[in-house]
Structures are given as C-alpha cells and as structure tokens.
Amino acid sequence: MFDKHLFNEIKQLPKLALMKQNKQAPYLLYLIIFASTFLLYGNTIFNSFNLDDLIVIKDNEVIHKGIKGIPEIFTTNYITDKGREVDYRPLVKTTFALEYQLYGENTHLHHFFNVLLFAISVMLLYYLLSLLFKEYHLYLAFFVSLLYLAHPIHTEVVASLKNRDEILSYIFGMLVLIYAYKYVMKNSVSWLFYSGLFFILALLSKISSLVFLAVVPLILYFFTNANLKKIGTTFIFHAGLITAYYIIILSLLPTYTREFYLIENPLIQETLVNKIPTAVYALGYYIQLLILPHPLLSYYGYNQIPIVGWSNVYFLFSLLIYLGLTVYGLHGLKSKNLYSFAILLFLIHISMFSNVILPLAGIVADRALHAASLGFALIVVLLMYKLAGISVKNKRHKGYNYFFLMMFGLLILAYSMKTISRNFDWKDELTLYSNDVKNGKKSAKLHYLYGQELLKQAKMSNVSEKKKTYLNKSIKVLKKAIKIYPRYPSAHSILGQLYAEELKDFENGIKHLSKAVEVNPNLAKAQYNLARCYQSQQQPIKAIKHYKKAVEVAENNVRAWCYLSQLQLAQGNKTAAFSTAQKLATIAPDDYFTHYNYGHLYFNQKDTLKAVQHFEKAIVVNPSKTDIAQFLYQYYQSKGNEKKSQHYRELFE
Q1: Dihedral angle at the C-alpha atoms of 539, 541, 545, 547, nearest 10 degrees?
Q2: Quick one: DSSP state of residue 502?
Q3: Virtual torsion, Cα 247, 249, 254, 260, nearest 10 deg
C-alpha cells in the first residue's frame, strides 16, 4: 500500500541524483516498484488453489512429474480435461512443473512466484517507459508504472495461479518491445533477433501475445524517428516468425476447438450484426472497471452482462465513447501526441477481447484489462500533470508540486486499499464465490460455481448441522442459478445429484436430472446420476437406457458399465450382461469394477471358481470392500484354507 513512508520517498525524488534517461533510471525507483508489488499483492501468497488452478496445477498429472514431464508439456495442449484439448501454453506449465520438482505441491510458493513475476513485469514496463519517455518529464515513467501496478484490475491475474500465462506473456511482451526499440535506435540486427526470440517465448505463454505484433509498430512510430521501411521490416520479421511458429505448432499438436456454452458467452449463437451491440456494451463495461474498479468478479457471463440491442442506451453511450477515442487517437498520429498513443495502445490491447470475432469466456473478464490498463494509467497521469500545471515535456524536475502528489497519492491509496481487500477474496473457492455472488447477482455461472462448492463442503463435513447448512444453502444458490437461466443443464444436474445422493429425495433428483439431459443429452454425469435414481426406484428399463447413454458419451465411466451389466443380468439378459462386461474389461482391464462385475456374473452362473478369482483381483485393487472380503473369508473357510480365510477376515474386521 502507498503508505506515509513511501509518500515521503516520492517527495524526496527531486533530490536524487538525476541520471540520463537513455541509460538507466534511479535504482531506488525500481526498489519502490518491487517493494510496492509485495506490499500490495503479498497477501495472495497465503491463498489456496482457486478456479482453474485445480485443472492446470493441482489435478494435472503432467505437472506432478516435475522435470520429467516437460517433454510431454511441450507436445500436448495446455488443458486436456474431460476430453477437451485447449490452447498451447507450455511455458506456463513448465514453470509449475519446475516448482513442483523443487517444492512439491506448495500452494504458497506458487503464489509467491506469481507475485515475484508480476513485480518483474512491472519493472520491465518501467524500464521500457523510461526509454520511450526520455524526452519527457523525468518521473513520468515511474508514476505511470506505479499507477499501473496499484490498479485493482490486476488482482485476478496475480491471485489466480492459472493466470500466470498473462504475467509471462506480458514479461516477454515487454522484452519484445524493448529489443525492437533498441534495434531501431542502434540499427543492430542482433537486437531484432532477440526481439523475435522473446516474441516466440511470449506466444509459448499465451496466444493473446499476438497483440504485440501491432504494438511494436505503434511504439516505433511514436517514439523513434524510424522511417516506414524500418518499421515495416520489423513488422514483417515478427509476422514471418509468428507464421513459421504456428505452422510448426499446428503440425505437431492435435487440433482443438474451444467449445463455448451459452452460459459462458451467449453471443456464440448470435449473428455478427446482433453481436455488435452487446460486444460494444461489454467494451464500455471495461472503461467503467478502469475508472471505478468495483465490483470485481471472478466470473461475469450470462446474465451479468446482458444481451442488448441497437437501441440500448448503454450500448449507444459506449459506442460514442469508443468512436470518440478512435477519432482522437487517429487525429493525434501526425503530432505523435501522448494522449493519442495511450488511447491507441488501449484500443489495440482491448480489441483482442471485443467478442466480435472470437468469444471470451464470461463475455467480460478482469484479466482482459491486464495490458490495456497501461493506456488508462498513462492518460490519468497526464491529466494529473495538466491539472497540477506540470509540463510533461520538462525533462528535469523543478521543485515540488504538492497538488500533484496529493492527487496521485489519494488515487494510489484508494486503489491500494481495493487491491489488498480484493486479494483476500481470492483466499479459496468458498471465500471467492461467497463474496462475488453478493455483487454478481445476475451471473448464472457464478451462482452455479458457488452452489457446487457448497455441495463439496457439505460432503467433506462430518458435523451434521454444518452439513445440513451447506446443503440448504447450496440448494438455494443453485435454484437462483436456474432462475437466472432456466435451461442451465449443469445447474440442474448438480442440484438433482444433491437431492438424490444427499437427501434421498429421488423425486426432485429425477426432476432436475431429467431437465439436465433434456437440455444437454451429452452431459454424461447427469445421464449416470439419472440412471442411478431410476435404479434405486426399481425402474430398470429407464436405468438401462440412461446407463447406455452415459457410456456412449463418456466411455471411461467404469461404474456405469458395471451397473449396466448388473441390470442386464437382473433382467435375464445374460448375453448382454457378459458383452457389457467384456467392453468394460477392454476399457479398464485392471479396474476394481471390472473384476467386481465379472465376479458377480460368474457367481450367478454357478462358476464359483472364476467368481473367486475375480473377487480376489478386485479386493487387491480396493481392500476396503468388506462385502467381498466376507465372501472370500467364508469361501476359503468352507475349503479349509485357514491361511487365506484368516487373511480376508482381517480385511473386514
């Protein structure tokens, strides 16, 4: 936080020995940026895993392999979860694998490195701005960097480990810009080579790094005297490198398509013409978050960001703002106006998340402003300079300006308080969702995530009253998600599961699970749970139908295969039962349910010897199954085999 000590340090900045801007900025300023990063974001170090952290790190087997997993990381997609193959960000996963190799699963160290990397990114930003603003006020680069650092919009990127991709992308993006600038200023091809190398590293962190292809020429035009040929050469070199990179990557990796659901981004079902009003509305929402970063949510989506039409007043207001920004930005190109640069920088970065060409999960996301917020920070500082009567083109500081320091200090203080407070919200999933639903009252998915987490907490609780409280709250929250979006299959699915498994209310369980599979027949978990409900209600025909659909959608659901086989046997269809058992054995030859199922089938056929063989294999896989242990104990006792009968007796006693 920007405390009194830090305020006094800034007051003393004019007394520091001034150094030439084209060489190096005062070390103290770097130290302030580094220390401020840990003051503002250090409380995230004590947080747990959150949101997609579980998929990317905690439940990711390749990360747990440490260094040995790195070759696999570079030859597979970023996320391979539930059949999804998403993106390619090997550098991010490599950092987690290295940390796992050194420290194991240590959430706090993962968070520490997130803060450290963010500090490095802002110091690199300051270094770049020091180069670009060498003809401007001495501390302009510092104040812009500090404001960028303190802005609460960055809390998601720093507090969410999954978003390390944004930080690494920005680090390498800054290095791309620094070395491209040096290439033009020093006319040395080696600098261009380094710029290209860092561009590849940025792409290996996140595909959105492509935006730097447009940012490089913008910076070279505004802050160098390079001619169009020189700028064009840099652009063509980067573009050629990117093209070669993607040709190689696409030839090595399996193709993937990121499947979006309406609940994540309703614009996927709209035509281009119908997308535009909502997309522009969402862009206006970003400006609101920059000026007043409240409320900040971990997930927006439907219907927090509503679908609007061409007559919507907020769309029209947002459209006027962006048209004005575009006109002003382009108008200042000739004079190389700093305001124009800041506006165009913002527009270039935010264009990646406009939802017109490519949809964004949640329609709006705080992380989308990670790079774009730099343009905002520059505009705010420039306006403060103007209000304080400080000439931005004065390269050396003359005396104090308490009015500027007061304005800047109050803004930093306000942003810092919000940043630190927001970091605490990211403590864990339960804390995050419970806080966010208060402000995200129209977000269906946010309520779903909260309801899902409450159910998870209920299952883990051993205290009956606490468990009951969690379950009741989960029902209430999930019903709110369904009220916001009545055709929300995942919400119906988990609510139906709660009713059936936890409350034994099969009527409501069947009601919601049936709705889930009606909306999305390929929701394997809902099909399986619905089959379980029908089986418990002695409706085998319906149960068989949904078990078949469950294994059709998710072939690796061994429980579904096993129960399907058992029901087929109970219906007198032994041929189908054994056929299903054989399919299960092909899919999971060493699984507990494979041998458990075969054991029952053979026992039913009076082939006790084969039944015993499979039951023994089953209990090796899962020794906690006391019913099988009792059967084997009785069998071997009847055979006079005291050694084995005693062994299985010990398992169930």
Answers
A1: 60
A2: I
A3: -90
Quick check: 230 and 360 in contact, CB under 8 A?
A: no
Amino acid, res. 544: I
Beta carbons within 8 Å of 516's beta carbon, 6+ residues apart: 489, 490, 492, 493, 496, 523, 526, 530
The predicted-structure confidence for 225-267, as pLDDT tens digits, reads as follows 999 999 999 999 999 999 999 888 877 776 666 677 888 898 9
For 313, counting Cβ atoms within 10 Å of its Cβ (0-12 exposed, 13-18 middle, 19+ buried), the class is exposed
| Cα 368 from Cα 354, distance rounded (Å) | 10
Cα 550 from Cα 512, distance rounded (Å)? 16
Q: Phi and psi at residue 256, in whole multiples of 5°?
A: -145, 155
Burial of 247-277, coded b for 16+ CB within 10 Å and e otherwise, reads eeeeeebeeeeeebbebbbbbeebeeeebbb
* Local structure of 86: helix, strand or coil: strand
Q: Could you give the CA distance from residue 150 to residue 246 in angstroms, rounded to a whole number? A: 35
CA R_g for the chain:
30
Listed in sequence order, the residues at least 6 apart from 394 whose beta carbon sits closer than 8 Å to its beta carbon are 137
C-alpha–C-alpha distance, residues 563 and 541, integer Å: 13
C-alpha distance from residue 27 to each of 121, 122, 127, 144 (Å)? 16, 14, 11, 17
What is the model's pTM? 0.90
92-115: string of b/e by CB count within 10 Å (b at 16+)? Answer: bbbbbbbbbbeeeeebeebbbbbb
Cα–Cα distance, 611 to 601 (Å, whole number):
7
